[in-house]
Amino acid sequence: MQVQRLRIRGVVQGVGFRPAVWHIAQSLSLKGSVLNDGEGVVVDLWCSQKEASDFIDRLIAECPPLASIESVESAQWKTSESVLPPDGFTIAESHESAQINAGIPVDACICKACADETLDPQSRRYRYPFTNCTHCGPRLSIIKALPYDRPKTSMAAFPLCAACESEYRNPADRRFHAQPVACPDCGPSVWLTDTSGQRLEIDSVDAIDAASTLIGRGEILAVKGLGGFHLVCDATNEEAVTQLRLRKRRPAKPFAVMMPDLEMAELYCALNDAGREAIQSAASPVVIAPRNEVTTSHKNIANSIAPGLDELGIMLPATPLHLLLCRDAGIPLVMTSANLSGNPQCIDNDEALADLADIADFFLLHDRDIVVRVDDSVLRQTASGMQTIRRARGFAPSPLKLPAGFGESEKVLALGGEVKNAFCLLSSHGAVLGQYVGDLESARVWDDFNRLLSHYQRLYRFEPQKVAVDAHPEYIASKYGRAAFLPEQRVEVQHHHAHVAACMGDNGLALDSAPVIGVVFDGLGFGEDGTLWGGEFLLADYRHFSRIAHLKPAALPGGATAIKQPWRNLVARFGESGSREAFLAERLQAQGIELSAINTVKQMVEKGFNAPISSSAGRLFDAVSAALDVCTDTQTYEGQAAIELEALAHQRQDAFAYPFGILEGNLPVLDPNPMWQALCEDLESGVEASVISRRFHLGLAQAVVNMVQHLSLSLGTTHKIALSGGVFQNKLLLEQTVERLQKRGFEVLIHRQVPANDGGLAFGQALIAAALSLHQHTQSVGLSHN
Questions:
Q1: Fewer CB in 10 Å around end: N or C, the chain?
Q2: 274 pLDDT more than 90
């Protein structure tokens, strides 16, 4: 008798994969077994090779919605006549393994079947806020160890009742081996407290119904969700939203809004097909989309939700708890991460009560422990498709497929950057880009980074052979990498090269692909020449890069202070405006900047005192924002000046583009002087700020195209163009640049799965380190053969 053994890799644990295998085997009358181990799933079939092939075809076609098959390897052998086949097909117990390469399943939003049960008065899970099955519910956020089984999750604290046990053991049930399965009789529970943690006596259907009543009265609640706490209030109540901003000390950064259903979401926002698909996906991300004018009887979203912006970040309920809360409230709800400014999102009840007592009026708590903090993912709707802004819940840590040529890679740990940090674990099986961690300047975020990194390394039993760090001498993650690993393990990666490599990998370019022209616009990164880069044109592949052009550098008066105060960047650009220095200084004074401060900063620039030079594109946006009185004195969140400047540009359809020059030299330089002179002329003529903003955006997009065209002619060959860096999260700039490049015949690569910002940096770092290691190995093998 022949036995066919199938080794299946990918995201195949905790996602209903073994039940799917069981169902297909039963329908084909096959005998054998299926089990989980550290590599994924193993299927033994007592059948012919043809029957096994039919089985594989069915499995690929009927793969469960949350599963992802990376590969199927098959082997066969003959048994002796004395060995009898099993009586049927069984699901065996999981096997431990010294090596873990199985994908960790992501947290998935509530499926329709579970939503229907939760809302059905006849169901035993009616209004149960933790209803789930193999197609939905918590995964990453509750996992303590792999392989993924209930005893290795925070659900181990809740023994199953007889009814749930029956579902859990029945291969024909959709809750078969759904590790978080529970019901009101045996699972976690939810309750409402005041700020002291005292449980409230509730004259209501349940705690969630009472919570919705409080929200309707204008109260602010801290709600424990799937991967952390949210602060919640009525998104149509201006007073409540303003109070939340005051208490959270978050004066302007937009709040996300949760809608009860798609119908309400489309009432408030203009979703296209891609946006509609994304917001309803199992990942259930926040989707940033253009706002609609609401003319029906529905209340308008409070202006202070996203002040000065023409888009909203909206989401649908991801859990039964959120579904019930939204249904009961019947209104859009603010759903923003619950944390003190600069700190990570709270995940523990006691931590939340301590940290949020001065922000929230009441707390909706539950007793299912959150093992791993997972923030909400954020996507933005663009004409070029959905753009990933933050990769977290629902996406991380799904493995990213490695491009061709990386299949023999060593294990690489990449530690990412300083802000929007995410780390990456790369092996021959794929790249695991962890969820968004945050800005590492905060001590508690740094502690969270260390906990999360240790957790991932423990889960995957991952011992890196190479460690990639950003070349910046002061980044805390880089310092950690230099201190914790041996010199021969470490690979120093230039910041903007990592951005280009991340974009290449995101688009599946093979290891041996020809170099691309990478256009990387961001805040700043440490350059090879010791200056701060941020407006770069690179010729790059996975192993090498050269700087072939850049944005004209300008001073950063006050260093890091200039990043927070846009007006300083305008003063640094005074000389580019022709003879209009006094005119721009008067505009700054009209916006509340004292002349003495302006003169001090001007002297810093002229004398080069505490005014490092940078080619940052982000700071150019800050300077224009200050000139237009959009965001002048202080940015209260990263990118505020540029984000509000873009929103202003969306108000107009003007097609005129400000001119930029190209200065020849050792490296071509993109010169904004002509733009400044045209901009000042428009300011003096009284042209509206919205028109000026649009002309600036179109001018910069055209300037990128002109420089790429110039470089292509000088290089003498055609290259693909990779657009990366946080500035290319600007939808108008991205769309205009892509469209204009494509009209010139260029093939354009943009980010899709990983963020263009520093949240995707570690993926690029890992690919570069892997490519260098593979090259070194090839050379050493070649030498040994000579």
A1: C
A2: yes
Which pLDDT score, from 0 to 100, does residue 97 have? 57
570 SS3 class: helix
**pLDDT over 90 at 636, yes or no:** yes
Q: What is the mean pLDDT of residues 705-710?
A: 98
Report whether 466 contacts 410 (CB < 8 A). yes
Class of domain 399-507+758-778 (CATH, top level): alpha beta
Helix axis angle for 673-684 and 617-627, nearest 10°, is 10
Q: Which amino acid is at 97?
A: S
Helix (H) or strand (E) holding 693: helix 689-715
**Each residue of 440-451: pLDDT tens digit?**
999 999 999 999
State in words which class domain 551-693 has.
Answer: alpha beta
CATH class of 190-378: alpha beta
Looking at residues 221-226, what average pLDDT do you find?
98
Residues in the chain: 786
Q: Please, are residues 421 and 758 in contact by the beta-carbon 8 Å criterion?
A: yes
Region 101-121 average pLDDT: 91
125: pLDDT strictly greater than 90:
yes
Among residues 332, 333, 359, 331, the alpha carbon closest in space to that of 345 is found at 359
Instruction: Give the containing element (helix H, strand E) for 490.
Output: strand 490-493
How many C-alpha atoms does 685 have within 13 Å on its Cβ side?
9
Cβ atoms of residues 671 and 663 within 8 Å? yes
DSSP state letter for 327: H
> Which residues, including other chains, have CB under 8 Å from residue 420's CB and lie 6 or more apart?
390, 436, 438, 439, 755, 757, 758, 759
Gap between the Cα atoms of 285 and 254, Å rounded: 15
Distance separating alpha carbons of residues 48 and 29, to the nearest angstrom: 12
pLDDT in tens, 159-188: 999 999 999 999 889 998 899 999 999 999
Is 80 exceeded by the pLDDT of residue 768?
yes
Question: Would you call 722 helix, strand, or coil by DSSP?
Answer: strand
- Among 733, 711, 718, CA closest to 664: 711
Place of tokens 């990194």: 453
Q: Crossing angle of helices 112-119/320-329, nearest 10°? A: 50
Confidence of residue 415 (pLDDT cuts 50, 70, 90): very high
DSSP code of 655? -
Please check whether the two domains, 399-507+758-778 and 551-693, share a CATH topology.
yes
Please, are residues 51 and 76 in contact by the beta-carbon 8 Å criterion?
no
**Pairwise CA distance, residues 236 & 238, whole Å:** 6
CATH 3.30.70.100 applies to domain 2-91: yes
Chain position carrying tokens 């005041």? 194
Mean pLDDT for the chain? 94
Domain boundaries, the chain: 2-91, 112-169, 190-378, 399-507+758-778, 551-693
Measured CA to CA, the distance from residue 82 to residue 69 in angstroms comes to 35
Question: For residues 624 and 693, is the Cβ–Cβ distance under 8 A?
Answer: yes
Rounded CA-CA distance 34/43 in Å is 4
Q: At 380, is the secondary structure helix, strand, or coil?
A: strand
Two tokens at 579? 């003879």
